[in-house]
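Let us practice reading a record.
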Amino acid sequence: MSRTPDATSARTPLRISLGIVLLLATLGSFGAGFGTMTDCTNTFDCTSTGCSPCATANGWLTGGWIVQGVLLLAGAALALLATRGVRRPAVRRAAIALGPLAVALFVLTSAVAAASY
């Protein structure tokens, strides 16, 4: 069974986007959270929930991590649609948008968290 160019055209950007989202949802979120929260707790000499500035930063980081997880689930749904051949052009466009959206979300939530204390 050979794959047509149309069938693989949705898979490549989807794989790249899923890789980006997975990387940001795991290692990226851990690294940003560890760095930001270490700086906050050292600056204010408190825990992540013990003082207002660090609790706010922690909330932004947690919210960003949750939305990255939602994007990962959306990517998994797109992967399922791509394997079934459902609306390939729409799946391809959504897959292409998924990676940059994850990066923008990661940058935004990390920057807001760091600026919140």
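A brief commentary: The chain has three helices and no strands.
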